[in-house]
Design brief:
Number of strands: 8
Number of helices: 1
Shape: elongated
Order of helices and strands: EEEEEEEEH
Helix content: 10-25%
Largest sheet: 4 strands, antiparallel
Distance between the termini: 48 Å
Strand content: 35-45%
Length: about 140
Amino acid sequence: MHYSFFLTVTPANDVDNPAYCHIHLAAGVLENIKLFFPVGCSQVIRATLETDAVQLLPTNQNSYYSLDGEVVDANLHYDMDAETNSLWLKAWTIGSSYDHTLTLHCEVRGPDEPSLELVMSKILDTIDTLADLIRNYF
């Protein structure tokens, strides 16, 4: 499942008054996010992705993303069944004169979708079993 969210950061959204976008996703595993910074941000817009309890991205706590016309493409494995499926995109400015809109795309593997890692693991187990049978036969 793919989700898209937008967050506009105004010049009034400084570090003490950040802008928030509440992100509520379906159950499953959050596997990838893409955070688009528009051209013109000049690295004065800073953003993080957070849960109710901790900062999820960037993974080094108390850090942030700050780009200009570029995309943060982060692969992760965040199990929203075991954790919470309520996330927050938080952004603020350190001196912008104009509004800037960040775009966040989320890719969620639902509980009914197969996991590529699980399929590959099953295939490797089958190959190992077949190799053992062949060795025992000859």
